[in-house]
Amino acid sequence: QVRLVESGGGLVQAGGSLRLSCAASGRTFSNYGMGWFRQAPGKEREFVAAISSSGGKTVYADSVKGRFTISRDNAKNQMYLQMNSLKPEDTAVYYCAADRTFFSSQVYRESNQYHYWGQGTQVTVSS
Question: Which pLDDT score is estimated for 126?
Fold first, then answer.
């Protein structure tokens, strides 16, 4: 099985930056497509960004496009989310997700397409 652990969350002022990390263990990391989701209190979990197993394809939610960057380092079994120009509406618990892919360019955007999830890390952006 795959275990995912997020880190890097915290409290920042609007306009600031944070870098989230997701450490993976248990199985071959390089064969998994991965993504970031977030959930604010009282709201549904929403897609943020995803990256293919090879790292060659990335997709972003419109709300974060141009501000967030997803990346991965398969040699280190790590995935990252660089968040710049943070806004109060970015406040949420951020979750790392992963699932087996059959193609190196395959990307999943729906939460129900992922079987493995981290415990989440809180990101709070003050105005």
Answer: 97
Distance of alpha carbon 41 from alpha carbon 58, whole angstroms: 27
Residue 31 burial (CB count, 10 A): 14
pLDDT digits (tens, 9 = 90+) for 18-54: 999 999 987 677 789 999 999 999 999 999 999 999 9
Overall size of the chain counted in residues: 127
One-character DSSP codes across 21-83:
EEEEESS-GGGEEEEEEEE-TTS--EEEEEE-TTS--EEE-TTTTTTEEEEEEGGGTEEEEEE
Burial class (CB in 10 A: 0-12, 13-18, 19+), 81: buried
| Dist. CA 80–CA 74, nearest whole Å | 11
Task: Give Cα separations from 21 to 47, 94, 103, 127 (angstroms).
Answer: 17, 10, 24, 24
From residue 70, alpha-carbon distances to 1, 25, 78 in Å are 23, 19, 11
| Measured distance CA(83)–CA(116) in Å, rounded | 23
